[in-house]
Write a structure and sequence with these properties.
Layout lengths: L6 E2 L6 E2 L2 H10 L5 H19 L21 H17 L8 H26 L9 H11 L7 H23 L7 H10 L5 H18 L3 H25 L3 H6 L1 H5 L9 H21 L4 H4 L1 H8 L1 H19 L6 H6 L3 H18 L4 H13 L17
Antiparallel strand pairs: 1-2
Helix pairs in contact: 2-3, 2-12, 2-14, 2-15, 3-5, 3-8, 3-12, 4-5, 4-18, 5-8, 6-8, 9-12, 14-17
Organism: Microbacterium immunditiarum
InterPro entries: Bact_Transport_Assoc (IPR052529), HGSNAT_cat (IPR012429)
Keywords: Membrane, Transmembrane, Transmembrane helix
């Protein structure tokens, strides 16, 4: 679907469609996967919650006050898995692009990756005390490029192999004294090491596999939901009986490996939270096959411009904290201001209004224009039709 107004034939000749109609079509037309936008919206607000709320370390089904713990670590992994889905969709969906079309798409992914990495460094310079994910996101985009021609089954196998093997290596990598030096700290910031690409590429490839399998096919949605739920059950159940805690994870190799604690990059977190992300994506796509798609339109609007929403949150945080607290670095002081609800509400309102009145998110639009300026369309490029999918 084009950015500008579409023309439709009438008895008196072609005419320009109303502006609001084109904005509505952009958000709700066949060019977008509503369930993926919903999942992105949930991931963005989940990351807001992880940043802005006080979250207890222990999750307890009997204590609703602890249920917000579900966003810790899971939102960022959901974000990474959705990156893979997005890469899969822009490189052909169930039928990978061929020839120069794939070459162009790959080069644009690399340019976008650099822009994400650079934006991440700029956001980190605001001093807001969070681990900015965009540096890791950019690196993951580049790492995913060589895999864009693979079929779904191969992608799932590779993702599974990385998920099972790399956590063993990651424990050793994280224990390296280099990370505790000044140079190591700068390197960790540049690499987004809180979200280590060495393991997290598994989540991206799993999402890419879902896109290649045909995310709009009912069978794929159901199987993804079932597989994701099974993986989550296994990972979290094994963690529950392991008896590991943060103290033991710091002391020896096996507790550090055999854990599903958020941001541990332990084997059970990779299995459990990776499965959780797949299940959430599939559930969102299935829900958006029903009337719920209209109820969650504001969340889908947030998910249609996740980069803008994420960036705006950190910039507004830095601005407000500097005025109210005198510094942007006081995490406890800012959380004590209880900013989550106003941030979430204004983000939903702002994104919905922008999507319906203007269209594409401002950063999404700018990144797209920049990548198209850098990587031109090849002379022989023609849009390759996607396979028909079961709706």
């Amino acid at each position: 679907m084009s950015e500008g107004a579409e023309r439709t034939p009438t008895d008196s000749g072609p005419r320009t469609r109303p502006w609001l109609a084109t904005r509505w079509d952009r958000l709700n037309g066949p060019a977008r996967v509503a369930g993926v936008d919903l999942a992105r919206g949930l991931a963005v607000l989940g990351m807001f919650a992880a940043h802005l709320l006080w979250i207890r370390e222990i999750f307890d089904w009997d204590d609703p006050a602890t249920w917000i713990h579900i966003v810790d670590g899971r939102s960022s992994i959901l974000f990474a898995t959705l990156a893979g889905v997005s890469i899969g969709l822009v490189t052909g969906g169930p039928s990978p692009l061929a020839g120069s079309a794939m070459g162009t798409a790959r080069l644009r992914l690399v340019v976008r990756a650099f822009l994400l990495w650079l934006l991440g460094l700029l956001l980190d310079s605001t001093g807001v005390p969070v681990y900015v994910i965009l540096q890791a996101y950019g690196i993951l985009f580049v790492l995913a490029v060589p895999f864009t021609r693979l079929r779904a089954r191969t992608l799932f196998v590779v993702a599974g192999a990385i998920a099972l093997v790399m956590p063993f290596v990651q424990v050793w990598l994280d224990a390296n004294p280099f990370w505790f030096t000044a140079t190591g700290d700068l390197t960790a910031t540049a690499l987004g090491w809180h979200y280590p690409f060495t393991v997290w590429i598994a989540f991206v490839l799993a999402g890419l596999g879902v896109a290649r399998a045909g995310i709009l096919r009912t069978r794929v949605q159901v199987w993804t939901l079932a597989a994701g739920a099974a993986l989550a059950t296994v990972g979290y159940a094994l963690h529950a009986v392991s008896g590991s805690d943060a103290a033991s994870e710091q002391s020896s190799f096996w507790p550090a490996l055999w854990t599903a604690r958020p941001h541990s990059t332990g084997l059970l977190e990779v299995i459990g939270t990776g499965g959780f992300a797949l299940a959430v994506i599939a559930a969102c796509v299935l829900l958006c096959r029903t009337f719920v798609v209209w109820i969650v339109l504001p969340l889908r609007a947030v998910g249609s411009m996740p980069l803008t929403a994420y960036t705006a949150q950190l910039l507004v945080w830095a601005w407000v904290a500097s005025i109210v607290l005198g510094t942007s670095r006081d995490l406890a002081g800012f959380r004590d201001l209880e900013p989550f609800v106003p941030f979430a509400v204004w983000t939903v309102i702002g994104c919905t209004a922008w999507a319906l009145l203007v269209g594409r998110g401002p950063l999404e639009w700018a990144f797209d224009r920049l990548t198209r300026l850098v990587v031109k369309e090849p002379a022989d490029h023609g849009r390759q039709p996607l396979d028909r999918v079961e709706r």
